[in-house]
Amino acid sequence: MLVNSLSGIIFEINIKGAFCMLNKRIKAEILLFAMLLVIGFIMPGCATTLKTDDGLFEYYLTGIGNPKVVYISNYLGTEYDLIVPDQIGGYIVRAIRKRDHAYLSERLGVFENRGLTSVVLPNSLWNIQERAFANNNLTSITIPDEVTINSNAFAGNQITTFNLGRNLKCSYVSSLGEVTAYYYGNNRRAGEYSKIENNWFFNGVIIDLPAVIIVPHNYRVEINGVTLRYENNINMSMSPNNMYFVPAGSQKISIKDNQRNLLYEDQQTLRSGYTYSLASNIIGWRLIQQQIWDPLQH
Predict the structure, then answer these.
(1) Based on the number of CB atoms within 10 Å of its own CB, is 126 exposed (0-12), middle (13-18) or buried (19 or more)?
(2) Are strands 140-143 and 161-164 parallel, antiparallel or unpaired?
(3) Which residues of the chain have pLDDT under 70?
(4) Residue 98 and residue 74 in contact, taking contact as beta carbons nearer than 8 Å
(5) pTM
(6) Residue 25 parent element (H or E)
(7) How much is the pLDDT for 287?
(8) What percent helix, strand, coil does the chain show, rounded to 5?
C-alpha cells in the first residue's frame, strides 16, 4: 500500500511538473509571438528590403511610428548620371546606407564602382555611409547642408569641384579626402571648393591649408578667446585624439582638459599644413610643432 501510494504521488508530481514546464514553454512562445507582432506593427519594413517601382533602387524603412524614413541600400540601375530621389513611396529619403551586417560582410558601398559620372543628391539627405560613392568617375559633387559623411565616401574619384553645404560633419578626414581639411579650416562655410593644379580655392579665392591642432578627445580648444565647437573637430582613426583645423598665422591658443582646467595658453604662430600636439614635461604643458601634415595621407 505504501509503495502504491508513493508511486501515485510521484506520478502526480511528474504530471504536474510536465504541465508546469509545458505552460512555461507555451507562455514563452506566446510572449515571443506577441513581441514579433509588436515589432511588425511598429516598424513594418525594417526587416524587409523593398524595391522602387522603377526598379532602380533597393531600400528599407526605418523609424518608430510615423513618419518613417527611407534608407537607400542598393542601386540596380545602369545609368551613369544618377539622380537620388528625395522621396520613395511617400517617405523621405534620409540616408544612403546599407544595413550594417551587409556592409560589414561585403565592404562595398551602395553606389561603389558603378561607373557614375554625375550624382545629384536630395536636400532631404542626412547621412552618407562609408564608401557610398567610392571608385566612380565623378569630377564634381554637390552636398546639401547638415549631412554627416562617413569615411572614404568619395574615395577613388577625381573630384576637383565640391559644392559644399553648411555644417557638414565629416567622420574622418577621408570623408571628403583632401578638401576636408580646407573645409574645416574655413569654418565649414558653404560654397564652392575647387582645386586648380596644386591650389585650392573657395568661391574663386585661393585658400591655404590650415594648421592642425591635435588634442585628446573631449579637450576644449580656444582660438583668440573663441571656443571651437565640438562639431569642428574630426576623429583620428584608431586614436583617442581629435584634430582641429585652424587658420595659419598668429593665434592666441588656449587648451583645457575635460574638466575645463586650463592646461596651455600662449600666443603662437601656426604654420600652414603643420601639426601641433599637446605635450607635458617638468615645466608644464607645451604645444609642439611636428611634421608637415599631408591631407592625402589621412
Answers:
(1) middle
(2) parallel
(3) 1-47, 64-66, 100-106, 236-238, 293-298
(4) yes
(5) 0.77
(6) helix 2-42
(7) 86
(8) 20, 35, 40
